[in-house]
Design brief:
about 280 residues; Rossmann fold; two-stranded antiparallel sheet; globular; binds flavin-adenine dinucleotide
């Protein structure tokens, strides 16, 4: 049994350039223009998990991203890791999307790819969270739009051949991270998984991989291509989460240098703390 895998990949601002990140004062969304981006780190683990499913069972690995046009560079990097094909959903109409609008757009992108390929995806893999928005909402929302079972924070995924109704149907066992341990799950495909970084160690891209990636298909779709999608759920307009006042907290701190004997300094510290309402001792 071979599997068709889709991996959702988000370009995120390169942390080395966070100082250049600004907020659009009117739309209150992040201005990404001109800020170098990279593949959301945990999405590389999702891609690796997809590649290993293909190496173990056969099938295909397709990556999908909703992002500005310059995300094609990011997708070429992912194709160089070994993915077969990439789709970039890019249009101003998708801009400013909150998680609901993002997952809705990805849902329609995935459905359109399935229609084009004549098959349905067995696994849709996402990272557990992005390095910028970090809401950790998209994978579960995607599961809901698709109507598929979905799990979040999956750090282990193993297949167990099984017989069901005479058809060879694989059962997958998974473990998800919890605060104080983990939970075990078994399920059949199709599945939507938000994976944790530990699920697989991403491979490095090889020169051969980079060369091959140049000729691998990378398709860009805009609003008009997602004809089944409704404007009501797209972009900033289709986003129920409208950012409120965004401001940088006033981090001004006053400092005072205490000198003297250790006892004198401790005495001074206690006095200052108490004068600021901190209860110390009886
Ligand atoms: C600082 C900040 C705070 C935000 N707060 C909120 C908020 O409270 N509520 C809200 O609805 N939106 C919020 N957003 C907007 C949100 O980041 C976007 O909607 C984003 O496209 C999806 O959310 P996320 O980055 O949190 O994704 P997460 O749910 O954290 O991402 C999980 C996984 O989903 C996949 N994924 C996510 N986005 C994409 C994409 N564009 N293309 C392909 N795959 C993707 C990736 O595999 C990723 O690892 C915020 C954005 C920022 C920068």
């Amino acid at each position: 049994m071979s599997y068709n895998v889709a991996v959702c990949v988000k370009p995120v601002p390169d942390p080395k350039h966070y100082d250049k990140v600004t907020i659009d004062p009117v739309k209150k969304t992040i201005t990404r223009t001109g800020i170098p981006t990279l593949v959301n780190p945990v999405d590389k683990s999702a891609i690796e998990a997809g590649l290993q499913l293909r190496e173990h069972y056969g099938g295909s690995v397709i990556v999908v991203s909703m992002a500005p046009p310059n995300a094609d560079e990011i997708l070429r990097e992912v194709l160089a890791m070994g993915a077969d094909e990439a789709y970039l959903l890019s249009d101003r109409a998708f801009g400013g999307a909150d998680t609901l609008a993002t997952s809705y757009t990805l849902y329609h992108g995935l459905k359109k790819i399935e229609a084009a390929k004549g098959y349905s995806f067995d696994f849709i893999l996402c990272g557990s969270e992005s390095a910028d928005g970090a809401t950790a909402q998209v994978s579960s929302q995607l599961g809901e739009w698709l109507g598929y079972p979905h799990l979040w924070n999956v750090f282990e995924l193993e297949g167990t051949p099984g017989k069901e109704g005479g058809g060879e149907k694989e059962t997958f066992s998974m473990k998800t991270k919890m605060e104080n341990g983990y939970m075990e799950w078994t399920a059949h495909i199709p599945l939507v998984l938000g994976v944790a970084r530990e699920i697989r160690k991403p491979r490095f891209t090889s020169i051969m991989g980079i060369m091959k990636a140049k000729n691998k298909p990378l398709t860009v779709w805009g609003r008009a291509d997602l004809d089944a999608a409704e404007d009501t759920y797209l972009g900033l307009k289709g986003s129920p989460t409208q950012p409120g006042e965004i401001f940088s907290p006033d981090l001004k701190r006053s400092g005072e240098l205490f000198t003297g004997t250790p006892e004198a300094i401790v005495g001074r510290v206690v006095t200052v703390l108490r004068s600021n309402g901190v209860v110390i001792g009886g």
